[in-house]
Amino acid sequence: MTLPDPSFLVIQCLNGLTYAMFLFLIASGLSLIFGVLGILNFAHGSLYMLGAYFTHQLVSLFVDTPGQFWWAVIFGSLAVAAIGVIIERFFLRPLYVREELNQLLFTYALVLIFSDFARIIWGTDQFSVSRPAILKGAVDILGQYFPKYNIVIILLGPCIAFLFWFILLHTRWGRMIRAAALDREMLGSLGVNVSRLFTVVFFVGAWMAGLGGALVSPVSAIVPGMDVEVIVNAFIVVVIGGLGSFWGTFLGALIVGQVYALGILVFPRLSLVFIYVLMALVLIIRPWGLLGRPLQKR
After folding, report:
1. Which helix (H) or strand (E) holds 47?
2. Mean predicted confidence (pLDDT) in 135-148
3. CA 7 to mean position of chain CA atoms
4. Per-residue pLDDT reduced to its tens digit, 201-257
5. What is the spatial distance between Cα 225 and Cα 204, in angstroms, rounded to a whole number?
6. How many of the other CB atoms lie within 10 Å of CB of 277?
7. Which residues are 140's β-sheet partners?
8. Which of 249, 267, 271 is nearest to 258 (CA)?
9. How far is CA 146 from the centre of its chain?
10. pTM over 0.85
């Protein structure tokens, strides 16, 4: 087997970083919801899919509006967050006192509902969104061309990560979120409206899923079923990094992105297998993830 050209290897690593940042946006919302609410939301991938569809729809409606893509990203992701609030407030909240199996079955049912909803509204055709004019084209990196849009995504991921890190560690809402993850009953006894806090957390988690779907729309086909693939990879990310660990999710996304991108160079047909093997090794050696902690019964 001949070694790939170094410049091509660099571009492939950058492609892996791009994929990792999309995974981080989705998986961090999934991990946040699990860490605070204790719910593994199978419908998180469906919210990602809706973010992509809403962005496509808004871009189509406002063709002549300056900055149409960015407006579509903002309002599309906020629409998904609003749907998340409705789900949490009217459907998930009564299930908090039920067994975990009921919560899992409900979120899985949402996957089926949203999938049929997408097919009814948009059909089964593939859609795509044009990249914003300012980010069209590519830059030369070691003689290879790499899209400007992907560079922005690579830079955007760490910015969002540090923003949420700052909010979680240095704001009142962040302290309450961390306290709720540790002991929600004690937090409630201190006078905090835990139900409202749960709604805010679900809003943020759903918004991150919608944002991921909105931003991926120019680089990936928008089709029914795109939710299933991404939720599987998002679960792998949080399992590797550690359920409920924010920086663990970031690390897990980086690892999965690079393993997938470099695996394509070595054995293209087995690129996904490497990710599952990696997850299995992490589960054997450190079942709670690289930066996670052993789960305690609430």
Report:
1. helix 44-61
2. 90
3. 29
4. 999 999 999 999 999 999 999 998 899 889 999 999 999 998 778 889 999 999 999
5. 23
6. 13
7. 145
8. 271
9. 23
10. yes
